[in-house]
Amino acid sequence: MAENGTDCDQRRIGMIKEQHNGNFTDPSLPCERKRRDREERQNIVLWRQPLITLQYFFLETLINLKEWTIKLWHRRSIVVSFLLLLAVLTAAYYIEGTHQQYVQYTEKKFLWCAYWVGLGILSSVGLGTGLHTFLLYLGPHIASVTLAAYECNSVNFPEPPYPDQIICPDEEGIEGSISLWTIISKVRLEACMWGAGTAIGELPPYFMARAARLSGAEPDDEEYQEFEEMLEHAEAAQDFASRAKLAVQNLVQKVGFFGILACASIPNPLFDLAGITCGHFLVPFWTFFGATLIGKAIIKMHIQKLFVIITFSKHIVEQMVSLIGAVPSIGPSLQKPFQEYLEAQRIKLHHRSDNGVPQGENWLSWMFEKLVIVMVCYFILSIINSMAQSYAKRVQQKMYSEEKTK
């Protein structure tokens, strides 16, 4: 018969039995205390306790800076080597010569790749909010390149200003020369860099679980504790979420490289569990990271690119606008701003300067810009709350240790 209830419930039953037998000694329940402490930490947010939250945030920031300083001091040789390399690159960057054209090209490509890798890392760790930078940055970029490619009949956008601004090239493209593969090739670099960033963002859960398993210490992470509880109560799992997590864990544990590759190659919100599983069962680093990199940066990214490119292909966009107009009552009023937005984008693609570019702001672009601002603000708030709660956990653990020593 499947067991029901949590460890806290089982421990409570056992202590009640001890109380009946007369040998009950400690009335405290550690798991109950953990639950109460977790609830207290969750209340430390800016909109409930602003002063305490800001105080804890600054204290946690100081502690993190101190820890990072100590780590860098212990790795002095690596830091010195890095600084020497940085000095050589700085000298090459500022000294005049024929090499400057290569330096400028390398700089531009490096910053472009770093931008998308950074967005990929932020997307993988969820920005603390579950925010997906593909929806806010990479997806719209691929969509704009797709629309421009069909409008210009070319992907040879002048560089500069591309990728900062897309403008049709001077030469006229051949009608019908744009294919799916042409657009995929145009956005391959940024898409692969974004995918590589998401793969890098999956490493913290892996290293956390691996270090916890090797040290035998209790990990300071609630996701890992949830993972261990899931392993203990695997047979009793009844809800869909628990069964889905268990399926991911079994696939990764039993199939290995190809199981990780399968989980990384499809949109999978439970992939963090795959990283924890691989770390817990001491899967080799390159087995985990190699499969994750191939799955996210190559296979999954091509699937996502295909979806966006097909969705924003010229004939499909025109059909979508016509379908919007067919909606009773509100259709024509919704169709008009979409048509104005598309027409404004077409006009902008054929201008080489700001002269003649429409200055009116479409409400769709205005809403998107405000959405980005709101999400970035929420990201900053979530970082402050998370660091404040991390410091609160330090305080709680210190108090608990002091109580145990008394």
Beta content comes to: under 5%
**H/E topology pattern:** HHHHHHHHHHHHHHHHH
Helix content: over 70%
Structural class: mainly alpha
Question: What's the overall geometry?
Answer: globular
Compute the gyration radius: what is it? 27 Å
Largest sheet: none
Number of strands: 0
- Cα-to-Cα separation, first versus last residue: 42 Å
Fold and architecture overview:
By secondary structure, the protein is mostly helical. Among the domains are: 122-199 and 313-353 and 360-381, no CATH class; 216-308, no CATH class. It contains 17 helices and no strands. The radius of gyration is 27 Å and the shape is globular. It starts with 6 loop residues before the first helix and ends with a helix. One of its GO terms (cellular component) is nucleolus. Keywords: Membrane, Transmembrane, Transmembrane helix. The chain crosses the membrane at residues 77-95, 115-138, 251-267, 273-294, 306-327, 363-384. GO terms for molecular function: phospholipid scramblase activity.
How would you summarize what this structure contains?
The protein has 17 helices and no strands. It is mostly helical and about 400 residues long.
List its salient traits:
406 residues, mainly alpha, 17 helices, phospholipid scramblase activity, transmembrane helix, Vacuole membrane protein 1, transmembrane, membrane
Map the helices and strands.
Layout: H1 7-21, H2 30-42, H3 50-74, H4 76-94, H5 100-124, H6 133-152, H7 180-186, H8 188-200, H9 203-215, H10 222-232, H11 240-255, H12 257-264, H13 271-280, H14 285-311, H15 314-325, H16 331-349, H17 363-405
Helix pairs in contact: 2-17, 3-17, 5-6, 5-8, 6-14, 8-14, 9-13, 11-12, 11-13, 12-14, 15-16
Protein name: Vacuole membrane protein 1
Keywords: Membrane, Transmembrane, Transmembrane helix
GO molecular function, one term: phospholipid scramblase activity
